[in-house]
Amino acid sequence: MKHILRSLLLLIAAVQLSGCTSFGRGIAEAFMEKQQSVDTRLCEIWGKPFGGLAPFLGNQQGKMKVLIVHGVGDHLPGYSTQFVELLAKELDLPVMSTHYKNISLTSRLDSRKNLGNLRINRLLSKDQSKELIFYELTWSVITAKQKEVLAYDNSGEYSFRRAEVNDLMKKFSNDTSPDPIIYLGESREDILVSFGQSLCWMTKSNWSDLPDDVKRSCSFNDDTTATNIDIDQYAFISHSLGSRIIIDGMQRIASLLNKRDAEFSNALKNKEIPIYMMSNQLPMLQLGRKLPEVSNQKAAYCQPNGEKYHQRMLSKTPIIAFSDPNDLLSYAISHGFVEKYLDSRLCIDVTNININVATIFDVFGLGKLANPIDAHLGYDTDSRVIALIAKGIGNKNAAKIVNDRCRWIETID
Predict the structure, then answer these.
(1) Is the pTM of the predicted complex or chain greater than 0.85?
(2) What is the predicted pLDDT for the residue at 254?
(3) What sign does the CA torsion over 60, 205, 75, 323 have?
(4) What are phi and psi of 339, to 5 degrees?
(5) Is the pLDDT confidence value at 25 over 50?
């Protein structure tokens, strides 16, 4: 990579020194535009057919509910707006509520705690026969205070000493790198409680019952919760660290509920809840961690004739893992990883999707290059990712762009 960039810089410098700067720039721009005109970016899928969100939008008894959990870096409520609008367009849901509902999350044990924000939006078809309730969790306020220890490094006192590009990269690093480290410390419990509170509000209430602009905790100990789980459909969407939060959060809830709330726990055991993981980082975030409480026992927990089938947490947890090979922080999930490092009670099946969300350029014959930051952040605006989450693959409703642009290798047990 260093050799390629150095050669490219030398080429640009040579053109500039020859007095042909504008001519050289024109050639470069034309060259890049030509490469972008034909989109040949990778999209390869290994897994079983899945239907996405679309089949559940017309649920006459309950609702389709989706929770998104962000990854590293500071986020503000509304960070998922562009993604939601693209998803709504793909699902043909052009009607939405006139305003969002916001709940400031806190702990049932300590109401002074600020555990982030849950923002809820309601999306409908034109005839209102189809509905999606979208929940957006913003938890980064929990880690923001601890990251203030690095604030001096972003100040003018130090930042002006760096080259401009290096300064931007350092600020990006200061914003994102500490979160996985902080998550391994004392803040982990608060982040998992924040996720648990989001799931509680998601399962407990429908749109008309949700409070707005309040700071309030939620309890799973409610008759409506188990009833809603029986009739509603759920899905999670995550980015980077958010995937680890969801997995850990579900494992935490399983451990707690099995001890005290049989009705809620039994309702979950019959549910299938997919997780759509963008920029999946589970393998990297497993480093240095203990093995889960229950592992290497999928058959015992997930097969109807298994000896521990009644102790499962969910009927099935399909993981659809999106990874751009040029995303330096993203990894595919191997079968061995699932068996050893993910809780058997979740009954996980994995679909790996290798997809270029960043454009790859041939740098004047010197080699191919993709912006790794684009490769890390570009999932939620990529039309193929949106279409796969919305309508899946291997079914009659799969989007044309997926059928045309993605190669699917179906797997069987």
Answers:
(1) yes
(2) 75
(3) negative
(4) -65, -40
(5) no
Task: For the chain, give every domain's residue range.
Answer: 1-38, 41-148+189-410
Please choose, from the candidates 371, 65, 72, the residue with its C-alpha nearest in 3D space to the C-alpha of residue 237: 65
Question: Coil, strand or helix: which one is 224?
Answer: helix
Is the pLDDT confidence value at 45 over 80?
A: yes
- Beta bridge pairs of residue 50: 393
- Identity of residue 158: Y
C-beta of residue 204 within 8 angstroms of C-beta of residue 225: yes
Supply the DSSP string of 316-376, one letter for each residue: BEEEEEEE-TT-TT-----HHHHHHHS-GGG-EEEEEEEE--SPEEE-TTS-EEE-HHHHH
Identity of the amino acid at 409 = I
Beta-carbon contacts of residue 367 (< 8 Å; ≥ 6 apart): 3, 4
The string of pLDDT tens digits covering residues 81-108 is: 999 999 999 999 999 999 999 999 999 9
Q: Please report how the helices 223-231 and 187-204 are oriented relative to each other, as an axis angle in degrees rounded to 10.
A: 70
**In the structure encoding, which two tokens stand for residue 19, read together?**
């007095």
Contacts of 102 (CB under 8 A, 6+ apart): 77, 117, 118, 119, 120, 212, 213
Closest CA to 320 of 229, 225, 390, 263: 390
Residues 323-352 have pLDDT tens digits of 999 888 888 898 889 999 999 999 999 999
Lowest mean pLDDT among 160-174, 195-209, 362-376: 160-174
Q: Of 223, 282, 293, 281, which Cα lies nearest the Cα of 253?
A: 293
Can you give the length of the chain in residues?
413
Report the distance separating Cα 138 and Cα 245, nearest Å. 12
Contact (Cβ atoms closer than 8 angstroms) between residue 356 and residue 346: no
DSSP 150: G
Best CA proximity match to 402, nearest among 33, 35, 51, 38: 51
Rounded Cα distance between 27 and 257, Å, is: 63
